[in-house]
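Ticket #4471: structure export looks truncated?
Reporter: QA, pipeline team
Priority: medium

Steps to reproduce: submit the single chain below to the structure queue and open the exported record.
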Amino acid sequence: MNDTAAAAVASCRSLERLWLTRCKGLSDIGIGCVAVGCLKLRVLSLKWCLGVGDLGVALIGVKCKQIRSLDLSHLLVFNTSLNFDTLIVVGLSSSVCHPLNLCILWTV
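Actual output as written to the record:
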C-alpha cells in the first residue's frame, strides 16, 4: 500500500480495524489521511511500515480518539522518526476514555 491507496481507505469513515504490514510506499502523508478520515479507528497495525514517523503516529493519536490498539513494531528509530514525545501524545490523547494497548519493538 502507498499514500494514494491510504487516501482511498480514508474514505471508509466507519472503519474500525486496519492492519498495514510492510507497506514500503506508506508515509506520514498516507497515515495522516487515514487519521483524518477514519475517526472511528480502534485497532491499527503499522508493523514494518518504515516510512511512517512521528507526524503520522501523532496524527493517529490526536484524531483517532477511539484508538485502543496501536502496533508500531519494527519502525525504524532515527532522529527524524519516532520519539517518546510522540508516544506520550498518542497515549494521552487516546487514554482519556479508555486504555491504549501499545506495541513497540523498535529496529535501530
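Status: closed, not a bug. The export was complete when the record was re-opened. Leaving a note from the reviewer for reference: Strands lie at 17-19, 43-45, 69-71, 101-103.
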